[in-house]
Amino acid sequence: MNLLQLAYFQEVAKNQSITQAAKVLNISQSALSIMMNKLETEIGYPLFTKQGRNIVISPYGEKVLYYSYILLHEMEDIQREFTELRGEENEWKLNLGVTDSNYYGDWILDLMNAYPKLQLNVLQMSRDEIYENLLIGKLDFGISNGLEYYDELASQLLFSQPYQLLVLKDHPLARKGSITMEELVREPMLSLPPSHKERLIDNLSNAMHFRPNIVFEGNADIMEQMFHVGIGSVLTCAHNRGQWIRTSPEDYALLDIIGVSVRYEMYLVWSKNRYQPKCARAFRDYVFDYYHV
Amino acid sequence: MLLSQLEYFRVVARHEHISHAAEELCIAQPALSATISKMEKELGVPLFNRTGRNIELNDAGRRLLTHADYIFGQISAMDQALAKTQELLENEITISVSNSMFLGGWLHNFVLENPKIRLRQRMLSEAQMVEALMNETIDVAIGEFDSDIPGIVRKVIVEDEYVFSVAKSHPLAQKESVVFEDIRNENVISLPSNTIYKIADKVFALKECKPNIVFEGNHRMMSKLEMENKGIVFSTKQMIYTMYQAEKLKELAFIEKPVVIYSISDLDCRCKFCLCWKKGRELPAMAHKFIDAMEQSYPRYYDDESYKLEYKQFLSPGGEHE
Known about the structure:
Number of domains of chain B: 2
Structural class of chain A: alpha/beta
Number of strands of chain A: 13
CATH class of the largest domain in chain A: Alpha Beta
Largest sheet of chain A: 6 strands, mixed
CATH architecture of the largest domain in chain A: 3-Layer(aba) Sandwich
Order of helices and strands of chain A: HHHEEHEHEHEEEEHEHEHEEEH
Number of domains of chain A: 3
Largest sheet of chain B: 9 strands, mixed
Radius of gyration of chain B: 34 Å
Shape of chain A: elongated
Number of strands of chain B: 11
Helix content of chain A: 40-55%
Number of helices of chain B: 12
Order of helices and strands of chain B: HHHEEHEHEHEEHEHEHEHEEHH
CATH topology of the largest domain in chain A: D-Maltodextrin-Binding Protein, domain 2
CATH superfamily of the largest domain in chain A: Periplasmic binding protein-like II
CATH topology of the largest domain in chain B: D-Maltodextrin-Binding Protein, domain 2
Oligomer: heterodimer
CATH architecture of the largest domain in chain B: 3-Layer(aba) Sandwich
Radius of gyration of chain A: 24 Å
Helix content of chain B: 40-55%
Strand content of chain A: 15-25%
Distance between the termini of chain B: 79 Å
Mean pLDDT of chain B: 85
Mean pLDDT of chain A: 89
Shape of chain B: rod-shaped
CATH class of the largest domain in chain B: Alpha Beta
């Protein structure tokens, strides 16, 4: 087994076709075919099964694919670490996975202004996808609402706040400042579409076992418009309310939800096994500073 | 950098001695020295401090060693994961059986003999089974298949017959033999209507009519209702034998069970229980074991000498036509 075989194998797995992968890699189909056969022989298990004209990766192939990412990313890490040992600088490039793309708006712009050479690649994904991609080295950091424990991952709680409901000033409950669970169940609410991986409303309704009265689902921009014409209210927390506020804060009310113990928590997560180059350390320090942790 | 270079480097780092490392790796000492120099050149920093003929791992070397150890640790983790996958795949089997009673005590023994088995069962009609065999979502199917199906291997496991039983206190139980007209309007106790395999329906379909089902329940419930004289229950000779075996295991005197079992003398109730799989397919190892074991050790009611005697004792003489 060698690293080139593994890199080519990743491409074949991605395309599910030797022909297609050969085109991408710009090598001949027969050369790639021979290489994959050799890899299969060396590993000792069938990596593909044929289904008609396509090839499908086998359960063994899935395992090899998983570890191939770990190995190739670890090789990259060696390069990154030794680049710094030589006193040179790595590319300022970071891959960040986030569960909730709405909340970080404020600081991410400041960060990019502070480090203009930083290329930040931000991808929205589910919590499980963040963990998986951190483990195999595809991501440098994850920002995840909620946390599950993995031996190989390190994490830092950024903030923990109660869920709150943001309403307009003329809302019947605005003066009361709070809402009961019974009222919340009936309350017309706005939400991101179900295709969104980690919705606040799902986190809360799953934890509290209720079916929310969602009157509108759409992306954040349309949600914001709907909110301001009084179609429904939005679930948020003190930290995140800024994204919904258009005019002066006095025009809105943030209602406490009575009897809810689950909180909105945000974690920064990274892999313990990966080398963090200078830009990663700078990013981490910046986030920690911002959240005073 | 190559994996093989990292491997050489690990050995050199462990020995901190080129010729010892070369000996372990069975390669020439100058070749090994050249490999290490090449790596140092590529990484741009020395990995060892050299004083005279001695070499000593330095800070950069220790950093590389951490990565190298991690990489080879992950490679052995991959090997383990592959072996584990193989074990799981070899022990996996997906079956579908039209009548789960049919597998009775036999499946239990098969599972005990193959403790690593991962058996999955899918509930399918016989027509769906053929489709599932062809598209390989199940490995083997067990059901009533009376004729050959293209693309499918079919092995007859039991030549069976539909029968029915009735409590001894039921008026029918007085009869020497039973014809279909005797039962056409009888109350029938059956498996629930969502069950795929219902014998009563099959028997009545032979006469192009439907049974008068008054109760539906699982096998245990059916037998309770039967004792309460709520109706008659259809099964097959093999199923009764399977139940008999199960009762025997529990050391209950099946023979004293107050039911009479009848064949229907004017109806051809013979049926064939078959084991099927896809022709030409490379089956998983556990499926081969399953097929072999079923062919060799499935207990047929007509192979059991001791059972035959007991079976006839409570069978109405007129109802038996063997």
